[in-house]
Write a structure and sequence with these properties.
This protein has helices at residues 17-28, 43-48, 50-66, 82-92, 99-107, 167-172, 187-198, 218-230, 325-344, 360-363, 382-387, 403-408, 441-449, 454-457, 470-479, and strands at 6-13, 33-37, 111-114, 116-119, 124-128, 134-145, 149-151, 179-183, 202-206, 234-236, 241-246, 255-259, 264-267, 269-272, 276-278, 312-314, 366-369, 374-379, 392-398, 415-421, 426-434. The chain has 480 residues and is an alpha/beta fold. The structure holds flavin-adenine dinucleotide and nicotinamide-adenine-dinucleotide. Nicotinamide-adenine-dinucleotide (NAD) binds next to helix 7 and strand 17.
């Protein structure tokens, strides 16, 4: 038992992509910093989320693109080499070892304590280590909670007995199940259904609502559903699971999935892609007057509201502002700079779009969904803009009607939408759906964040013949 408290300027709880970046920024601001991690340095993103999922999907999407090109289609007519795809995925997940990221922490001068951290009153953190020991940490300036999320599972009869897949199993499985049921219609559901259908599983997607990707423009979910069906998956709407059981109660027994429409399915595995829950249930929030288990509410500098003296920050997924790695890392840059400024007694630039506030979380969150077709969206959908009371005009264009798209693939299918704030004269949202559009998205992010006047966008000339010429078509339609 190590009982001597260690004092740092900043204590960061959780070394996911966000905790790592908070620590990097506070260290760069000259503050001594320690990070506590209970599993692997790199967090969910590196080992069970972004990296392994995109490693699974990249060959799937590349093959789909190649199959649309006469001259190449025959060369990729066969099935994917699933073992090779999984082996490459293992490389991208660093074989679930964090030596590389530990080395990076050392290189930027951030200390690491391994174990489960809990707040223990103002500015104090107690870590329980794997051997049952205790490390006590004190922060002179700030504690940043960056504990992320875990998969949220519904309460269903039989669920805990059947060992369901969550995003962790879906991204780290060692072989493709014969039949996979995917529950949910969000991003994890559509990406993992796309991956495993192509890697050899027969996938059934069960959506309780009427659409896939319900937070995006409706055409995004419709095109993704078309893509999944063409790949051989069964996508069903308006249906929920009421119970699950394995034959004979055996771990390898066939799964029986009972549905609320009276139907039943048999399967080998079932993935619940039904959202996330914050990892705040056991981090000592009660010792600082907060309620355990919920999302942590923060101001735009990521400082937790309602905590005396403002020493507690919550950054990344755990604050529920935008559950995306790039957006969490952006918050980390802002929060790290704000902690640095406050520690030095320097002014905090917290006006919208200032140096210490994560304004883009509210106005311009970009996201790429790596399905076939890809979806790229930033800012508000037309429905969201209207709900926000903006006077908007929506302009759509069939992406197939650009020279770049027709060269990209035969039978290219896709759509683009821009949402223009008529009073402000700039874009507040853009959505692209189509092969290859992920790399197009940043142009839209710049237009939305920069509030580039539509009249000036007219002078941003897209190269011929690229899919980016969709910008020209959208602007032509807008200008009449
Ligand atoms: C399948 C899947 C695919 C995804 N794909 C993408 C994508 O392509 N692009 C994208 O932008 N986002 C993607 N996301 C979202 C992305 O993974 C998260 O937004 C990101 O991981 C959040 O980072 P974080 O650092 O806030 O939390 P996490 O990555 O969850 O890291 C939190 C860390 O805190 C540690 N921790 C928790 N509690 C404690 C404690 N008490 N003491 C010590 N340590 C603790 C955890 O062990 C973990 O390492 C995906 C998510 C899923 C599930
Ligand atoms: N490419 C990417 O950027 C990427 C990829 C994967 C995940 N992510 C992020 O990770 C987060 C988690 O993704 P997710 O897909 O798990 O969550 P989500 O919130 O996007 O979707 C969950 C879906 O499950 C449904 N659902 C919830 N409870 C249900 C139940 N009991 N039965 C049936 N359906 C139910 C919801 O209606 C919703 O459509 C998202 O915020 C996403 O942004 C991003």
């Amino acid at each position: 038992m190590d009982d001597a408290p260690r004092t740092y300027d900043v204590v960061v709880i959780g070394a996911g992509p966000v905790g790592e970046n908070v620590a990097d920024r506070t260290r760069a601001a000259g503050l001594t910093t320690v990070v506590v991690e209970s599993e692997l340095v790199g967090g969910e993103c590196s080992y069970w989320a972004c990296m392994p999922s995109k490693a699974l999907l990249r060959p799937v999407i590349a093959r789909a693109d190649a199959r649309r090109l006469p001259g190449l289609d025959q060369a990729v007519a066969g099935p994917l080499d699933t073992a090779a795809v999984l082996a490459r995925r293992d490389e991208f997940a660093s074989h679930w070892k964090d030596d590389g990221q530990v080395g990076w922490l050392e290189s930027v001068g951030v200390d690491l304590v391994r174990g489960h951290a809990r707040l223990d009153g103002p500015r104090a953190v107690t870590v329980t280590t794997a051997d049952g020991g205790t490390v006590r940490l004190t922060a002179r300036h700030a504690v940043a909670v960056c504990t992320g999320t875990a998969a949220a599972l519904p309460e269903l009869p039989g669920l805990t007995d059947v060992a369901p897949w969550t995003s962790r199993e879906a991204t780290s499985a060692k072989e493709a199940p014969g039949r996979l049921v995917v529950v949910g219609g969000g991003v994890v559901a559509v990406e993992m259904a796309t991956a495993w259908q192509a890697l050899g599983s027969q996938v059934t997607v069960l959506v309780r609502g009427r659409a896939l990707l319900p937070r995006m423009e409706p055409f995004a979910g419709e095109l993704v559903a078309d893509g999944l069906r063409e790949a051989g998956a069964d996508v069903r709407y308006g249906v929920s699971v009421t119970s699950v059981a394995r034959e004979g109660g055996r771990p390898d027994g066939e799964l029986r999935v009972v549905l609320d429409d009276g139907g039943e399915l048999t399967a080998d595995e079932i993935l619940f892609a039904t959202g996330r829950t914050p990892r705040t249930g056991d981090i000592g929030l009660e010792t600082v007057g907060l309620t355990p288990g919920g999302w942590l509410t923060v101001d735009d500098t990521c400082r937790v509201t309602g905590v005396e003296d403002g020493w507690l920050y919550a950054v990344g997924d755990v604050n529920h502002r935008a559950l995306l790695t790039h957006q969490g890392k952006y918050q980390a840059r802002m929060a790290g700079a704000a902690i640095g400024a406050r520690a030095q007694g320097a002014p905090v630039d917290d006006a919208p779009w200032g140096a210490h506030v994560a304004t883009a979380d509210i106005a311009a969150v970009p996201q790429v969904v790596f399905t076939d077709p890809e979806i790229g969206s930033v800012g508000l959908t037309a429905a969201e803009a209207e709900r926000a009371g903006l006077r908007v005009r929506t302009v759509d264009h069939d992406l197939a009607n650009t020279a770049g798209a027709s060269l990209y693939a035969d039978g290219y299918r896709g759509r683009a939408r821009m949402v223009v704030d008529l009073d402000a004269g700039h874009l507040v949202g853009v959505t692209f759906a189509g092969p290859g559009v992920g790399e197009l998205l940043h142009s839209a992010t710049i237009a939305v964040v920069g509030r580039v006047p539509v009249d000036r966008l007219w002078h941003a000339v897209p190269s011929y013949p690229t899919v980016s010429e969709v910008w020209l078509r959208l602007l032509e339609t807008y200008r009449g």
